[in-house]
Amino acid sequence: MTTSFAVTEALRAAVDDRLQEFVDRQRPLVGAPELAPLLSAAKDFLAGGKRLRPAFCYWGWRGAGGDQDPAILTAAASLELLQASALIHDDVMDASDLRRGLPSAHRRFEALHEASGWLGSARQFGEGAAVLLGNLLLVWSGEMWRTSGLPPEALAAAQPVHDHMRTELMCGQYLDLLEQAQGGGTFDSALRVALHKSGKYSVEQPLRLGLVLAARERSEWIDRLCVDYGHKVGIAFQLRDDLLGVFGDPVETGKPAGDDLREGKRTMLVARTVAAASPAQAEDVRRLLGDPELDDEGLARLRQIIEDTGALAASEEMIKQYLYDALGALDHAPLTPDAREALTELAVAATSRRS
Amino acid sequence: MTTSFAVTEALRAAVDDRLQEFVDRQRPLVGAPELAPLLSAAKDFLAGGKRLRPAFCYWGWRGAGGDQDPAILTAAASLELLQASALIHDDVMDASDLRRGLPSAHRRFEALHEASGWLGSARQFGEGAAVLLGNLLLVWSGEMWRTSGLPPEALAAAQPVHDHMRTELMCGQYLDLLEQAQGGGTFDSALRVALHKSGKYSVEQPLRLGLVLAARERSEWIDRLCVDYGHKVGIAFQLRDDLLGVFGDPVETGKPAGDDLREGKRTMLVARTVAAASPAQAEDVRRLLGDPELDDEGLARLRQIIEDTGALAASEEMIKQYLYDALGALDHAPLTPDAREALTELAVAATSRRS
User: Fold this and answer.
1) What is the DSSP letter of B4?
2) Which residues in chain A have Cβ-Cβ distances shorter than 8 Å to B38?
3) What is the pLDDT of residues A269-316, one digit of tens each?
């Protein structure tokens, strides 16, 4: 196992296998034929994905001296169940049609309802089924974590971090709903939401989980690394997300071009654009942002404003700066050398990704 | 502590206190002013309730020889968090306006959105916030259970039951969605859904949790009691629920009169009515059941049909029979005498309740 393991197929394959095994283990409970659509949707939503969260967790573990116990891969893989749950619920809340180029969960169940000629509202059935599927994956993420086979004292040490992460995720998503509803937030408020909703549970907390599992306790250097590296990579990760939501290639993101603009998402990128816009530009943003019918011309206009106000360049600059600071933090932590190298790779991968 | 503790204010007060304490313990995480509506909604939805699930769990514990360790009350109270989560999500899925006489969670957040003059769809905000609140309570139920202070070996023995219950609940709710969508189910299919969706996690599993916590293992007599008593009380509980949804007094149920009929719920009561209906009665049921605008006259007509077909009397008869069988099962289990008495009281309370 070399340091390139950080982002290679090997980790992905291990995570895939553990998820598959876990879901199969549930078959005695969820094996009834009527539940098949729930199970196949779960499997499809767990396939693919960048597996960044398991990688941060795994390399936290290795970085604090954890051995090659295969149980860590099971524990790390469980974070994908949490992530899949959050995405499925997120798509219901945003009424998004697509996820990774495929119909979102609620659209999938809506289509099942329509194709089956069932009674009542197909939309309502689709949303209900997606909420339940998300709940199932949320419950399973906790179960898979606890039954990973890691030593009880390791799990006990990390459990408060795990609990904290889950509460923080739900609250962060609520803050995000609020930010969109209140509109016109500042860069700082958008940053706060991004950090709570996504940054922390994408990078900082998975890393902290791995570190605390191996060290059997939270310690000062762990908390410092989680802030100085994890926090910063998390924000840069989210800044990249903002850019992909506006400039991303639909073929790579699996989402329609400019989806965030059509949804009117109040991202850090948008906050910065609005703050720097001329009155004419601001008027165009007000008119176009959040228009569900936004066409290619409107999309091009918004992209132009984001460029012309300097918001695009400023975001790229910030990503670079956060990444630079984060990598510096790695030098000061008593990490194993291979973990340091892997976390360097991961920080770059998380902030320069194209999907 | 006397056997009348089973259904007295003392248990309710203890459960209330533990829930209050737990939510307050989360305040450092969820204390931001913007999150206040989430926290106050959580508190309101946890207030009241019949506390039947904690009572079954508590008396299972005592029945298998558990002592008066106050930690059992915390573990038992955590079941109310799961229940509140399920009700909040259920109301979103059914688009219900009321819960216990107050606005349902999604309507509450919808009203907050409207009163605040926020951007976007108030309905979408309300539903999103309610999904997140339900998630938060779901996550908290697991955390409160694990951190109850019960001995680790007791928790370890009961954890598979706990995991099983949560998966079963989500799958049961999906089966319920399916049953409503497919319509015209038989009594047997409605019974199966009722058992999986509600019966098991209302009675059988809370009881099993308490028994296994105290016994430190699943054993034959525990499983037999959970089926012969728990199963049967669960079904009778749900049959009573069906009757309350049609004939219940709105002042006591906190739901509009005949709410289940207006929603078109395919309950055991409805299945039995349809099976025994004359062609003219069947035609009226088809026309009126599930009509959201169902008026007093239509409601009266449906009630009349339910009576005239004998479905009402048959349901009351079944409740009596299930209760009789369940109480018989108590005699054969090696329970402590006070638990036997309390479980007798609880079975009666669960199946003769008026709300």
Assistant:
1) G
2) 171, 174
3) 999 999 999 999 999 999 999 888 999 999 999 999 999 999 999 999
Candidate from B30, B173, B174 with C-beta closest to A167: B30
Write down the number of H helices and E strands in chain B.
Answer: 19, 2
CATH number at residue A49: 1.10.600.10
How is residue A158 written in tokens? Answer: 């990390």
Q: How many domains does chain B have?
A: 1
Provide ipTM, 2 decimals.
0.93
- Report d(CA A62, CA A337) in Å as an integer: 10
**Helix B311-332 / helix B296-308 crossing angle, nearest 10 deg:** 60
CA A82/CA A137 separation, integer angstroms: 6
B103: β partners? B98
Q: What is the DSSP letter of A65?
A: T
DSSP B164-210: HHHHHHHHHHHHHHHHHHH-S--HHHHHHHHIIIIIIIIIIHHHHHH
Q: Which amino acid is at A8?
A: T
For residue A279, what are the contacts with CB-CB under 8 A and spacing of at least 6?
Answer: none
The residues in A 18-57 lying below 8 A from B, measured between CB atoms, are 26, 29-30, 32, 34-35, 38
A30 to B181: CB separation less than 8 angstroms, yes or no = no
What is the three-class DSSP state of B219?
coil
Secondary element (H or E) of residue B35? none
| Burial (0-12, 13-18, 19+ Cβ within 10 Å), A80 | buried
Q: Which two tokens stand for residue A212?
A: 């605390």
Helices marked H in chain A — which ranges? 9-25, 27-30, 36-46, 52-63, 71-94, 105-116, 122-146, 152-182, 187-194, 205-215, 220-225, 232-247, 250-253, 259-263, 268-276, 279-288, 296-308, 311-332, 337-352
Tokens of B234: 């669960």
Burial of A338 (0-12, 13-18, 19+ CB in 10 A): middle
DSSP per-residue string spanning A138-192:
HHHHHHHHHTS---HHHHHHHHHHHHHHHHHHHHHHHHHHHHHHH-S--HHHHHH
- pLDDT for residue B337: 93
**pLDDT tens digits for B146-175?**
999 999 999 999 999 999 999 999 999 999
CA distance B53 to B292: 32
Residue B97: both structure tokens together? 């306006």
| Spatial distance between the Cα atoms of B270 and B267, rounded to a whole number of angstroms | 5
Q: Cα–Cα distance between B313 and B293 in angstroms, integer?
A: 27
Q: What is the mean pLDDT of chain B?
A: 92
In this complex, do A181 and B138 lie within 8 Å of one another by their Cβ atoms? no
Least Cα distance to A264 among A127, A95, A99 occurs for A95
Q: Is the Cβ pair A131, B89 closer than 8 Å?
A: yes
CB contacts, 8 Å: A174 with chain B? 35, 38, 129, 132-133
Which chain A positions have a beta carbon within 8 Å of B163's beta carbon? 139, 143
Domain of A146 in residue numbering reads as 3-352
Residue A3, pLDDT > 60, answer no
> What is the per-residue pLDDT across B249-300, written as a single tens digit (0 to 9) for each?
988 888 888 888 988 888 999 999 999 999 999 999 999 998 889 999 999 9
Could you report the per-residue pLDDT of A194-233, keeping only the tens digit for each?
Answer: 888 777 889 999 999 999 999 999 999 999 999 999 999 9
Å between A50 CA and nearest CA of chain B: 24
Q: Which of residues 237-256 of A touch B (CB under 8 A)?
A: none
